[in-house]
Specification:
This protein is 41% helix and 19% strand. By secondary structure, the protein is α/β, with parallel strands linked by helices.
């Protein structure tokens, strides 16, 4: 299962957001630094109304959504790359995740002191980013020294790595994250080998006060974050209210709907955050069904039909014959698989077919 790590400065609302999004109370919440020491882990389902529509069509009574693992990581402080605060632990934890959800405080509250005094969300982003960049800089320099030795023996892979590192080091030295470095040809693969923290995709969660969510786009702090992210980072931005999400966690669906209507918002941002995490990881969803269930499956964008089949079971990939494919919207509109097949809308695709987001797929295989 893919993992997203929730990071940010102390008192940014990380643990509150983690508890809310995972609908749990695993993470301790308090107004002091390092309330979170050991990372908390929760599994979150990806909201997708296509599953509901397919279940209504097939009447299975059971839907199984796809999921992402969220990890609440200890708050970071300046000097983390040198071990300040819980820096070493923080960096080790973040190295294990596939994507970063960076919670940025965009609310003022006297009862929740900011660890750096006055609220400045752009400065907060820069503090966290700088620590990650410095850690990557050290790792890149060590890799460069290693490759210099390999290049002398004629190692072509080492030569390619060295060429990339020679562009990467000044990029990091300028305080820029690795995921904003222009790459080409085989360089994305080489960059993954470096296991850099700033090469991971990022979603910025602009955490606003309860009363500001309905007008988050006009919040001056959110606007500053949006502009900074647009100019300096290759990332997504989702305004959210961890407080509202936390209150919703203990309500029934009907109570939650009424609560949100009273607040004047359709969604407090948690669902958007989950979907954004799914998107920046380059994932898409396809669906399968049988008499018992309708199920969502996760696959990387660009995956071919046999690879998608292998997500379900390795035997499906080994013995792949063909895939019967139709878009969810089209199937729901036609009303049944029988009718879709009858008029030739259920397509038969072979090994080179690239699976598209939202398709309903029936795999044919021979073991």
């Amino acid at each position: 299962m893919l993992k997203a790590g929730i990071v940010g400065l102390p008192n940014a609302g990380k643990s509150t957001l983690f508890n809310a999004v995972t609908r749990s109370h695993k993470a301790a919440v308090a107004n002091y630094p390092f309330c979170t020491i050991e990372p908390n882990v929760g599994v979150v389902t990806v909201p997708d109304d296509r599953l509901t529509r397919l279940e209504l069509l097939f009447k299975t009574g059971t839907i199984i959504p796809t999921a992402i693992e969220f990890i609440d990581i200890a708050g970071l402080v300046k000097g983390a790359n040198k071990g300040e605060g819980l820096g070493n632990q923080f960096l080790a934890n973040i190295r294990e995740v596939d994507a970063i959800v960076h919670v940025v405080r965009c609310f003022e509250e006297d009862d929740v002191p900011h660890p750096m005094g006055l609220l400045d969300p752009v400065r907060d982003i820069e503090v966290v980013t700088t620590e990650l960049v410095l850690s990557d800089l050290e790792a890149a320099q060590k890799r460069m020294e290693k490759n210099h030795k390999k290049v002398k023996s004629g190692d072509k892979e080492a030569q390619a790595e060295l060429a990339l590192l020679e562009r990467l080091l000044p990029h990091l030295n300028a305080g820029k994250p690795a995921n904003t470095l222009p790459v080409h040809d085989d360089e994305p693969r080489l960059l993954r080998l470096f296991q850099l923290l700033t090469a991971k995709p990022v979603i910025y969660a602009a955490n606003v006060a309860e009363g500001d969510l309905a007008t988050a786009a006009r919040n001056p702090f959110v606007q500053k974050v949006a502009e900074f992210v647009r100019v300096h980072h290759d990332a997504a931005l989702v305004p959210t209210s961890a407080r509202i999400e936390a209150e919703l966690a203990d309500l029934s669906p009907a109570e939650a709907k009424e609560f949100l209507q009273d607040m004047g918002v359709a969604d407090p941002g948690g669902s958007d955050l989950i979907r954004a995490t799914y998107a920046v990881l380059g994932l898409i969803t396809f669906f399968t069904h049988n008499e018992k269930e309708v199920r969502a499956w996760t696959v990387h964008r660009g995956a071919k039909a046999p690879q998608a089949a292998g997500i379900i079971h390795t035997d499906f990939e080994k013995g792949f014959i063909k895939a019967e494919v139709i878009a969810t919207d089209e199937l729901v509109k036609l009303g049944s698989v029988h009718h879709a097949r009858e008029i030739g809308h259920y397509r038969i695709e072979g090994r080179d077919y690239v699976i598209r987001d939202g398709e309903v797929v029936l795999f044919r295989f021979n073991v």
